[in-house]
Amino acid sequence: MENRNCGCESKSVDKSKESGFCESESIDESVKDKQKEEGECGCLCGLDKEYPDKSIINNPNKPKFIAEDDFIDELEEYAHSIGIKEIGYAQITPELLIKDKFIQYPNAIVLTMEMGKEIIEATPGPEAKKLNDSAYEKLGNISYKISDYLREHGYATEVAHPYGSIVKFSQLGQKANLGWIGQSSLLITPELGPRQKISAIFVSIVNLPIKETNEHSWITDYCEKCGKCIKACPEKALIEKEVCCGEKETEFIQEHCIGCSEGCTYCIEGCPFDQKEYKYIKDRFDKMNAKLKQ
Prior knowledge:
Layout: H1 29-38, H2 71-81, E1 86-91, E2 107-114, H3 117-121, H4 126-152, E3 157-160, H5 169-175, E4 180-181, E5 187-188, E6 196-203, H6 219-226, H7 228-232, E7 238-242, E8 248-252, H8 266-269, H9 272-275, H10 278-293
Antiparallel strand pairs: 1-2, 2-6, 3-6, 4-5, 7-8
């Protein structure tokens, strides 16, 4: 919930942190503090790992910057054929990047891949973590294949691995108008609800079909009235706090979440968007609001 300006001070909460937060004891505390300042994954799942470019084709020496006629349609068709569910486009701005990171091309192709039921239904533990890690690896490999496709057609790329720490993926997905960040800090989309992994490819194409408006902002109001993800979290990583003027907001406690370390997905499983279709929830929410206004 965003704070409303009511004449008193309250601390704003960044609700756009990426999924998969958990505590890691193997990383220096100074690194953990640094990441918290940057507002990224509390489990540090990406900071302690390097993801070298596994694209097979090298970047062209003289990359193209304009997408040819019908190329985007062909790219999307190829991406869907190898497992990508949704594709969006956005221009990278500084607040989307993890501090001290540099990218050469500020235009991004944003990719989502569905998390299978076996991941969502798994009890947190070693097996669930294995399934979760496997999904990250699968999306990473798909992203490299799409990178090769782009390079083969003359465009330069840089892959942001879904388990890495270059960019804030949920924020990027929202900016690409794929969906909206919910109370759980996860991106919620019409196609997949909160059950997706996200990656990105930074590309030399300057005429990407970027949408200017996001029609999913109503999710903020819906989540404020729902709160099921808060109740579903056994680790109390999501807590509801009172702020000024009787308002409430949800705070994400990074160090409490076991999303990466145990493969926990209770907040996803408890979310109505995982259980029912997006349109069904939107229609009911609109009808409820219409009655309240009468």
